[in-house]
Amino acid sequence: MENTCKCSFQAADALWKFRRLNLRKKYDFYIIDGDWAMSGAFNNHPNLWYVHSPIREIWDAYNYTRNNMVPMPLRGIFDLWVKCNRYLNRKYIEKVDRLVCNSNNTKNRLKKFLNREAKVINPPIETSKLHYKKNGDFWLSVNRLLPPKRVEIQIRAFKKMRD
Fold it and tell me: What is the pLDDT, as a whole number, of residue 6?
């Protein structure tokens, strides 16, 4: 829980820092990238928010985060924190001029949780030269090692496999 609280408070601190950011029309256009950075749209226009996901721990991963990462005595405080951040998310999304996201999955989350439409622009990955070839006896999992990523599920699954 200590890491969860630390990450949550750091993220909330970032939200407020981006909210106060005012580049005073130094640029013609602002591109915002990052789930907690959306508040940077408040003072900087015109802007575009490139979305990888709405904030997972307050939207679609809320129940998992609350039930598996927050100790029982702190759940009321967590619920209040989530309620405040959902409110702020809804307020800051009003200041975003244009939305672009990285997948249809993210597009659906934006519509469901923040009631906004977005255009999908997939990350620029050249796939035409990639071909599947069995390379060995391993599994590659590319994630940040944070509890909401649930990497432990992969580890438990592979422990159960004979090969």
Answer: 58
